[in-house]
Amino acid sequence: MKYKLTLLLLACCSMMQAQTPVYLDPSKDIEARVEDALSRMTLAEKIDVIHAQSKFSSAGVKRLGMPDFWTDDGPHGVRPDVLWDEWEQAGQTNDSCVAFPALTCLAASWNPDCARAYGHALGEEALYRGKGMILGPGVNIYRTPLGGRNFEYMGEDPYLTSRMVVPYVQGLQSCGVASCVKHYCLNNDEEYRHQVNVIISDRALHEIYLPGFEAAVKEGKAWGIMGAYNLYKDEHNCHNQYTLNKILKQDWGFDGVVVSDWGGAHNLDQAVKNGLDMEFGTWTDGLTMGATNAYDNYYLSKGYQKAIVEGKYTTKELDEKVRRVLRLFFRTTMNKQRPYGFLCSESHYEVAQKVAAEGIVLLQNEGNVLPIKPEGKKILVVGENAIKMMTVGGGSSSLKAQHEISPLQGLQAKLKDSNCRIEFARGYVGDVGGSYNGVTTGQNLKDDRSAEELINEAVEKAKAADYVVIFGGLNKSDYQDCEGHDRKTMDLPYGQDKLITAIAAVNRQTVYVNISGNDVSMPWRKQVPSIVQGWFLGSEAGIGLADVLLGSTNPSGHLPFTWYESLDQCGAHSFGEAAFPGIWREGKKIIDEEYKEGIYVGYRWTDMKKQKPAFAFGHGLSYTTFKVTNLKAESNVTTDGNMTFKVDVTNTGTCEGSDVVQLYITDSKCSVDRPVKELKAFQKVSLKPGETKTVTLQTDKRALSFWDETTGDWKAEPGEFIAWAGDSSDRRTCKVKFTLK
Ligand code: BGC
User: Buried b vs exposed e over 424-440: b needs ≥16 C-beta within 10 Å?
Assistant: First the structure.
């Protein structure tokens, strides 16, 4: 009897096994599962998976056991849930997250390991929250300091951006959560993002604006790309034949999904044919003033289905889109190997703190005012940004942080057991509000005193203080570091220049900490001994900053963009309005913006013009000092373009610290204009006092190449090149020549 039962059971099991459809069998290769699932889907089911069904979700295939697909912003933490079809908060009690430092800070760490840890921690938070895709990271290039979303991106240099985006994507996707790298492409300013048609040379497109995306796709193997709002070659980038079909899918072999930015699709025929795979945000309330629950009216919805039934289109394009969506499902929601997620863990806070610690940049430190020696001292903290929560606001990257430690709280916490006294003076009133889509900071920052009264109070207190630390800069309000608009000037808002100048005049131990994701002009720079770039640091902001100010963290961040003295030093602002913000066409529907500076963005421009910026790309000081010497090439001749360099870096100061060794390459002679130098390798190195390490840096043929517009390909011309090493673009202390044969 027992024997018979066992036989029956075995038979049942093998029957069940034989019946497991290929699409449900995780042991099968994803492509086989995709084809099997595709063959089982009805036309209506196929249409359902390629467009949104709510603000952030699209349908799965219920009949086949495939769950709905949930996306979420991105890129600095997992955004709180909004209502099904409105931008208002859903009011969940389990969607408070860890806010990680903004991507400008991550880039300033120059540490790809930080990017991997960041992506991974974010992935774990996303898993807990049931998200299959994070709408990030952003890799648009910092073209002008006025760019409203620069804080969400990784700076001005395509190489640095590329090295940082790859591990972020890999870390995130190792959790089975897709990355949706955005905004592809040429979305470098905000004001007219829906109407701007970018005109740009092929060379600048390939050398400056695409490499971050290319690396995310080819090396990071990103599963998603978000099309940008703007136009290029007169076509919106969410359905653009050239950028999506040709470059992304054909040339780079991208096998993931192209997701439209929310409301970025405009035309059925282009949406069908020009590379878009999933449509989100069209005609929904809030963004484009459409009707609610209008999902059936999306371009890739009922209208498309009808057009197929009527024979206007075959299912060729549809099947291709669905294949990509199914591949996404099998990589994420249908992936049985997915790990479990967790929210707000100690490990995630540690990552947030580590990135902050590695990204904060010490810009200037005359007379070694920093680090603060607090024993028995009186520290005056000044400024709205010392107390204002910065994780709420800024547009779609706004978060509901489980906690956010302000700079003032951070200093108070770190010094609570010391005999140091901390005082606060408001100094200026900026934006006292603090809410986004129904998430409010709960802070009451109202202060009715006049600007003069506030400055006078701060100055009087500054006279009696041993140190003054001013926390100023921008915030996440409209026309500052915020989506939807660009800044109107590079100046500090709310009369801060006057406040800083007045304080510096009465206290020589003044430290200015700038909170922003952008360059701001600093007319008082020579009067203020110490300046720190403090970014938007998220949950652990106050701890990260206090550690640097008090010296328990030795700063090691380096600038990911050129800090101009003024807009006159920026290429994008050197050609009048044609180059920024563009010129409206008749009818005012499209504004043409010509990137006339071409490849000369950031340091490439200031180098060419022989201008000295306030702080150079790659600049960053430490409480110790370093020497970068003895650059050598393994061989001074290369035939395949691959090069190996060795360079020594020594800690010549008295405390432990980390330096960023940077390698730049100059093409001595070329048939086309080339930048004076370009970043092609770097490494962050930690050193004890007196210690020397030899760093190995490798470059490949691409590092020697330019985009050849005549052949539409990369080209490295034989001849002499110079490699420079140092720890800032303006502090290159050794060089070596080599030849490409
Ligand atoms: C932004 C995207 C964002 C999307 C969803 C758009 O307005 O440009 O970056 O991911 O909204 O919130």
Answer: bbbbbbbbeebebbebe
User: Cα(35)–Cα(39) distance, rounded to whole angstroms?
Assistant: 6
pTM, two decimals, is 0.96
Ligand 1 centroid–CA 544 distance in Å is: 28
Structure tokens at 389: 């929560």
- Protein residue with least CA distance to atom 7, ligand 1: 262
Share of the chain above pLDDT 90, in %: 94
Distance from residue 261's CA to the centre of ligand 1 (Å): 6
* Structure-token pair, residue 477: 């309000």
Span from the CA of 378 to the centroid of ligand 1 (angstroms) = 45
pLDDT of residue 282: 79
The residues that are catalytic are 261
Q: Which atom of ligand 1 is nearest to the CA of 136?
A: 10
Q: Is 477 left (phi over 0), alpha (psi -120 to 50) or beta?
A: beta
Find the 136 Cα to ligand 1 centroid distance in Å: 9
Band (pLDDT 50/70/90 cuts) for residue 193 is very high
Ligand 1 atom having least distance to the Cα of 396 = 12
Tokens of 129: 């929250």
Atom of ligand 1 at shortest range from CA of 182: 9
In angstroms, rounded to a whole number, what is the distance separating the alpha carbons of residues 146 and 473? 14
Which residue among 73, 79, 180, 182 has the greatest number of ligand 1 atoms within 8 angstroms of its CB, and so is best to mutate?
A: 73
Ligand 1 centroid – CA 135 distance (Å): 8
Phi–psi pair at 532, nearest 5 degrees = -120, 135
Mean per-residue pLDDT of the chain: 96
Pocket residues: Cβ below 6 A from ligand 1 = 73-74, 135, 182, 261-262, 396
Shortest CA distance to 193 belongs to which of 484, 479, 482, 396? 484
User: 393 is written with which tokens?
Assistant: 């606001």
Tell me the sheet residues that pair with 648: 629, 694
Measured CA to CA in angstroms, residue 438 lies from 54, 83, 400 at distances of 18, 11, 10
Query: Per-residue pLDDT for 580 more than 70?
Result: yes
* Domains in the chain with CATH codes: 28-85+93-331 (3.20.20.300), 350-560 (3.40.50.1700), 624-741 (2.60.40.10)
Helix (H, G, I), strand (E, B) or coil at 10: helix
The pLDDT value recorded for residue 290 is 59
Q: Give the ligand 1 atom nearest the CA of 56.
A: 5
